[in-house]
Amino acid sequence: MSSPVSATVLAGDIAYVTLSSFVPDAGTQVLAAIGDLHLGSRLRGIVLDLRSGGGGAPAGVSQLLGAFAHGKIWGYNVDGNGTCAARILDWVCHLHFCRHDGRRSSWLAGCCSRSSTC
Question: Are 108 and 95 a contacting pair, CB within 8 Å?
Answer without folding.
Answer: yes
